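Lecture 7 notes: from sequence to structure.
We start with the chain below.
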Amino acid sequence: MAQCAMARLRVSIVFESGARIGPGKARLLESIRKTDSISGAAREMGMSYRRAWVPSPLIGCRGRLRGNPPHSWIAKYRQVSAEFRHHYRR
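Predicted C-alpha cells for the same chain:
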C-alpha cells in the first residue's frame, strides 16, 4: 500500500493593494515591531537588510511599521492561521 505524503497548510492574507502577509512576513513584521528597525529585524532573523527590505506598503520610511494597522494585521493573520490549523487537524 502506498503511503500518502503529508500536506502542509500555509495561510496568506492578500490585501486589495497587493500587500500580503504570510508566515515569513508576519515574523519579519513582528521582529521589526520588536526591534523598531528593518536592520535590527534582519540581524535577528539572520537575513540581509536587502532581503528584509522588500518594498511594502506595511513598512514606512526608516524601516518602521506604518502605524497601528500593520500590528492589527499581524494579529489578524495569527488568528486566521490558528483557525485554519485547528480545522485542518480535525
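Points to note: The first strand starts at residue 13 and ends at 14. The chain has one domain: 20-88.
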